[in-house]
Amino acid sequence: QVQLVESGGGSVQPGESLRLSCAASGHMHRNYAMGWFRQVPGKEREGVAALYISTGTTYYADSVKGRFTISRDDAKNTLYLQMNSLKPEDTAMYYCAAGTYIATMLDTTEYNYWGQGTQVTVSS
After folding, report:
1. Alpha-carbon distance 61 to 108, whole Å?
2. Half-sphere exposure (Cβ direction) of 100: Cα atoms closer than 13 Å
3. How many C-beta atoms surround the C-beta of residue 106 within 10 A?
4. What is the dihedral of CA 99, 103, 106, 112, to 10 degrees?
């Protein structure tokens, strides 16, 4: 069993930055992937960024490429999402997720474990 706890959300102005953290507990072998997803009310949850633990390969949604960076600290078993140049359309609840043998890295249906979410609001 894997438990995920997100933190780091908040309210910022357009152009500012935030770093989200996801502390993981429980055993995750090398075939795990971890990712960040977001959801706004009335819309489907969408993939933002993901990382395959064994290779460190990263994947990003087109809407965040060049602005967001996903990374992982193995020693701390923590996943991060550095978000720069934030825009109002980035406003959403952000979720951390983990799963095994993921084929499509930004597909929500492939992930088994989810955190409770952390709210990000970008507004002037």
Report:
1. 13
2. 7
3. 18
4. -20
In which residue ranges of the chain is pLDDT below 70?
A: none
Q: Quote the CA–CA distance of 47 and 77 in Å, as a whole number.
A: 21
Percent above pLDDT 90 for the chain: 89
Q: How many angstroms separate the CA atoms of 98 and 74, rounded?
A: 14
Bridge-based pairing of strands 10-12 and 118-122 is parallel
DSSP result, 32-61: EEEEEEEE-TTS--EEEEEEETTT--EEE-
* pLDDT at residue number 14: 98
**Residue type (1 letter), 89:** E
Query: What pLDDT does residue 103 have?
Result: 86
The candidate with the shortest Cα–Cα distance to 117, out of 12, 6, 15, is 6
CA angle 64, 62, 53 (to 5 degrees): 75
